[in-house]
Amino acid sequence: MVDEDNIGILIGIHALRTGAFMKESNLPYIVILGGTDINEFSKDSHSLDIMTEVITKAKFVVCFSSTIRDKALALWPNISLSKLALIPQAVHTCVSSFNLMSYLFSQPEVNSLMTSSFQKPVVFSLIGGIRPVKNSTYLIPTFQEWHARDKRILLLIVGPKLDEHYCSTVFEPAVNKRPGVVYIPGLPMEDTHAIMSQSFAVVNSSDSEGMCLAILEAMHIGVPVLARNIPGNKAIVQDGVTGLLYDSPQEFIEKAESLTQCPDAYVTLTKNAKEYVHTYHNLEDERKKYVSLVECCIKDILASISSVAKSVPVHGDITA
């Protein structure tokens, strides 16, 4: 329950999960389309009905990219354009002292491999909560085959288990005792950023995305990104310029192997990506745009209060 006497405006991300709650309030609210709401839950008619009501009642609807905005317009063609606000997700990173190599060498299966070959691991990190839409197992067979040819190659999956059934029936059987694959449960944000910074590259294998924060974080840190070629990723990754996009495991391995053999491409990709996030995903721009939306809401609230006050007759001013 919300104590509406002490709150003036609600802001929530995900049109279904927080939207279902906000639409029952009498308060004005701003809903942020997160990704799974518009990409996945919109396929279910009941969920879409709820989100339609949420969008209709919202003061503003925030979209991270033009891709999401276009999808919103396709789902809700009657939505007022003035209600839609395009605000790219900002990114900030903070790298801790977490030592990835020390952690990896503490794992018996990794330690035995590295001790026998005397070579430093080449780590590709996949960051994100473990749930079906993230499809964290998509590249596991590919990495197993690559690792069999080159023992340095490791796929490191980092993220908390968010879907118990999926994890027990799909993810854990795919990961357990698989050569070349290491899983680390969720870590503090700063440690996750440290893992990114010490990885050769960051990988995304999601079936769908709104705007993948892990991709933006990797760009900000200066690590190349290999991302699945889906609309949400295409909105922030320009193939061959700020990162690499792939359509299949085979294309992934071709581009990943090429990257390990081309230092110049590595430097160019990370340089371009850093410039991109600093230009289009900086905190100050994001802050200003959200403040502007909140100020519009406050202005409407004050205008409504003034209108009500004017409609209340002053004592002694009642005509017979």
Can you give a write-up of this model?
- The chain has 320 residues and is of the alpha/beta class.
- The chain contains 14 helices and ten strands.
- The two termini are 44 Å apart.
- InterPro entries: Glyco_trans_1, Glycosyltransferase_G1.
- Keywords: Glycosyltransferase, Transferase.
- Residues 119-275 form the Glycosyl transferase family domain.
Assign the structural class, choosing from mainly alpha, mainly beta, alpha/beta, alpha+beta, or little secondary structure: alpha/beta
* Spatial shape: elongated
Beta-strand content:
5-15%
Low-confidence stretches: none
- Give me the oligomer status: single chain
Mean pLDDT: 90
Biggest sheet record: 6 strands, parallel
Helix content: 40-55%
In angstroms, what separates the terminal alpha carbons? 44 Å
H/E element string?
Answer: EHEHHEHEHHEHEHEHEHEHEHHH
How many H/I helical runs? 14
Q: How many DSSP-defined strands?
A: 10
Rg calculated over all Cα atoms: 24 Å
Main-sheet strand order equals: 7-6-5-8-9-10
Keywords: Glycosyltransferase, Transferase
Protein name: Glycosyltransferase 1 domain-containing protein 1-like isoform X3
Pfam families: Glycos_transf_1
Organism: Biomphalaria glabrata
Give me a quick take on this structure.
This is Glycosyltransferase 1 domain-containing protein 1-like isoform X3. This protein has 320 residues and is of the alpha/beta class.
